[in-house]
Amino acid sequence: MDGFKKSLDTALGVILCNIVIAVLVHLIIVMEFVPSMIIMVAVVGIILVLDRFGVVNAMFDAFIHHKAVAIISGVILLIASPISLGSQNYAAHITTTAIIYMIACLGLNFQMGSTDMTNFAPAAFMGVGAYSVALCTVKLGWSPWVGILIGILLSVLFGLVMGLPTLKTKGYYLSLVTMAMQLAFTQVINIMPALGGSNGIPGVGRFTLFGLELYKRYTVAGIRFAPQIPYMFMCLAFLVGLTYVAMRVYYSKSGLSLNTIAQDDIAANCMGINVSRQKLFAFVIGGIFCSIAGSLFAGLDSYVGPETYSFSKSLMLICMLILGGMDNSIGIIAGAFLLTIISEKLRDVADFQQLVYGLILVIMLIVRPNGIIPKRVRNYCGITKRSVVRPAEPQKNPAE
Amino acid sequence: MSDNTLISIKNVHTHYGRIPMLIDVSLDVHKGHVCCVLGANGAGKSTLVKTILGMVNADGGSIAFEGQDITDWSTHKRIAAGIQVASASIGTFPKMTVETNLRLGAYTVHEPKVLAERLEEIYESFPILKSRLQQKAGTLSGGERTMLSIARAVINKPHLLIMDEPSLGLAPIIVDEVFRVVKRLNQHDNISIMLVEQNANKALSVSQFGYIIQKGQILFAGEAEAILKSEFMQNPIM
Q1: N or C: lower Cβ tally within 10 Å for chain B?
Q2: Residue in B with minimal Cα distance to A266
């Protein structure tokens, strides 16, 4: 096993890792329901077994050591993977949906994963972004890009309003407040005709970039690509950018202080951390992420309705976070991916969808309560370019 | 009040709900001194610490730190001004590594270079922590955890270090070690310390000045030697 770990920690090992991951993801997306599920269960099982031997951590270390190689090969694979989907409409649609949920989960993680404030209203934040785009394009005839910006501004306000009770409440009470906000959001939209009421707003304008329509069938080099492919590229760009932001925040002082507040907010305050400001920060930045995800979702479906951003969608996002592993961007992305694929592939047996969710959650919480790829111990030695303090040499066991 | 008063608490009252906890407490800590506050359980020692830190509101009276009135400041602002606390009740973060805990202590230090220097200094003066850097704080022994909470408090080079019962729940041999550290911090690193303790003999042996607090009131204030000789030391509750 040690030899395997060592061979992972090379440039070639990192590239091979990336390729294996990309191929597995591709297979899970394009296969039929049964083989796709078999691969997925196998992958999760293998990850859990490998983690026993510390291989997952070794992979993380390898990626950090060979950052440039990992990023370049990753970007090449990211660009190649949408193209490999070719003309498969449905697969492209699922993948784009998964990418959007990944963004929303990254946002939810700031509150739930980092700060341990369970927020039951991520779907409401998504709704803020989605309705901004819908109203801007349908009622005002503006560009959806303006809608994204307005959505971000509104979600900052919404995040502040939602964050204010957090300064007074904690734990279950805080969760109840967010739950109430989520339910109120759906109700308000239902009773306001200006917001489309319960029928929603159809015909949301599609995104365009420099005159290039992003939701359209293009034929390049003889292949008729699925219409979602260009849009998927845009969502991928958002995902990559926002993942970078999320990771930077995680390793920054702010991220550290959020973790500290999660453990003990009184002690955090005694370290000189402005607890109320950091809590509001978690709500605002998480809200911005979710709002962007919502805007992108509106652009994909070309429709917004109260049911799309209801309480059950919030629960789904929370499930994704628990499944993937909190406070680890990679784990969150994996969780969002797996659960989106499962729920989309279960469309044929939609009656069992909720049952399967519940089953997955119960199994996960028994087998591995921290999620598939849980958060790693904060380690400053590998992350900063010049390690400030050398780590203590691990003590050799004399028996070895 | 002389010029070298570091923190000056004047006529502070505090209450939890309707129960008064501190009644008309006045207390000074001088620069470069170790000042101990002695008292039995429930005398209001911890409330006094919380009031100084701003976690409990003082109604009536004033708190001045280095000449500034800090009565209405929030806790994090007081920490940034140079008050640090090492307390048994305000624990270390068990799920974080020792290094992360130390870095959190220096949360208000912004330059990475200064932070690196401070960390090195701490490793020199607390060698026991250096061998445990990547270990989670929850896996440390009680004595090591106390050392960590002291190290975490002094990494920021506080002007005033408040120590709330550092000897709580420790073996006698480790208690001696803790008080040696207190003495060294005061004499070698020139940190002014407010030592809140139940262990009167030990606390008085390292301090210059002392207060005895009982039922939320200051009962006696004087030089450490005067307290040692006074009738309070014969009192069984001490």
Answers
A1: N
A2: B90
CB pairs under 8 A between A and B: 77
Phi and psi torsions of B55, nearest 5°:
-85, -20
Do A288 and A177 share a domain, yes or no? yes
**CA torsion sign, A163 to A169 to A172 to A176?**
negative
Please check whether residue A379 is in contact with residue B134, taking contact to mean a CB–CB distance below 8 angstroms.
yes
- Mutate which: B104, B120, B164, vs A, most A CBs within 10 A: B104
Residues of B in contact with A389 (CB under 8 A): 99, 116, 119-120, 123, 133
Interchain pair A392, B108: CB under 8 A: no
Question: Do residues B82 and B154 make contact, with C-beta atoms less than 8 angstroms apart?
Answer: no
Q: A93 and A77 share a domain?
A: no
Q: Are both A150 and A274 inside the same structural domain?
A: yes
The reply to whether A48 and A159 lie within a common domain is: no
Residues A117 and A190 in one domain: yes
ipTM exceeding the 0.90 mark: no
The pTM of this model reads: 0.86
DSSP 3-state assignment of A134?
Answer: helix
CB A131 within 8 Å of CB A304: yes
Looking at the fold, whether A99 and A77 belong to one and the same domain comes out as no
Question: A275 and A248, same structural domain?
Answer: yes
B79 to chain A, any CB pair closer than 8 A? The answer is yes
From residue A268, alpha-carbon distances to A119, A261, A272, B132 in Å are 21, 6, 7, 22
Indicate whether A177 belongs to any domain: yes
Fold of B5-97+159-234: Rossmann fold (3.40.50)
Which chain B residue is nearest to residue A393, measuring alpha carbons?
B131
B contact test, residue of A271, A280, A385 with most B CBs within 10 A: A271
Nearest-angstrom CA–CA distance, B164 and B178: 12
Number of domains making up chain A: 2
Q: What's the CA dihedral at A75, A78, A83, A84 to 10 degrees?
A: 120
Nearest to A263 among B75, B95, B132 (CB): B95
pLDDT in tens, chain A (400 residues): 677 777 777 888 888 888 888 888 888 888 887 888 888 888 888 888 888 887 888 888 788 778 888 888 888 888 887 777 777 888 888 889 999 999 999 999 998 888 888 889 899 999 999 999 998 888 888 888 888 999 999 999 998 988 887 787 888 888 888 899 999 999 999 888 888 878 888 888 788 777 677 777 777 776 777 778 888 888 988 999 999 899 888 888 888 889 889 888 888 888 888 888 999 999 999 999 999 999 999 988 888 888 888 888 898 898 888 888 888 888 899 899 988 888 887 777 767 777 877 888 888 888 888 888 877 776 654 344 333 334 444 444 444 3
Same domain, A56 and A162: no
State which residues form the domain around A13.
7-85
Q: Which of A85, A102, A134 is the last residue of a domain?
A: A85
Give a yes or no: residue A375 inside a domain.
Answer: no
Q: Structural domain boundaries of chain B?
A: 5-97+159-234
